[in-house]
Write a structure and sequence with these properties.
about 120 residues; alpha+beta; three-stranded antiparallel sheet; two-stranded antiparallel ribbon; 2 helices; 7 strands
């Protein structure tokens, strides 16, 4: 085997090891996807999730029709999501930056959503 072939084989095997070692996502996740209409109202998202009560990650989420796919943080333990209201919907619509609500606040409270319950799927 020539030295260049050996170097190439070593580089490829190291690259393959790096690719397989990539994490699939945090469990429990720190963010999720919601769908918003033009007024800021939440639409139901369709998410594929693992068939596990222990794994609360979401593989992919799709929005129906004209709904905009928005990434939103999951509320920390002991923090409740803001109550839905027309004023909150308008503020949420304005706070969306590049498809995300990360860092958005409303009345001093973080714009977040409750974690998904793996038993009920909600």
């Amino acid at each position: 085997m020539t030295p260049s072939t050996l170097i190439l084989a070593t580089a490829l095997s190291l690259a393959a090891g790096v690719v397989t070692a990539q994490p699939q996502g945090k469990n429990p996740p720190r963010s999720t996807v919601i769908c918003l209409d033009v007024a800021g109202r939440s639409l139901p998202a369709t998410c594929q999730v693992p068939a596990s009560r222990l794994d609360s990650r979401e593989d992919i989420c799709l929005c129906p029709g004209d709904g905009e796919r928005v990434t939103v943080p999951i509320c920390a333990a002991g923090v409740r999501a803001p109550a839905e209201s027309a004023a909150y919907e308008r503020a949420r619509r304005k706070a969306v930056m590049h498809g995300s609500l990360a860092g958005g606040t409303w009345q001093g409270q973080a714009m977040c959503v409750a974690p998904r319950d793996p038993v009920s799927g909600r």
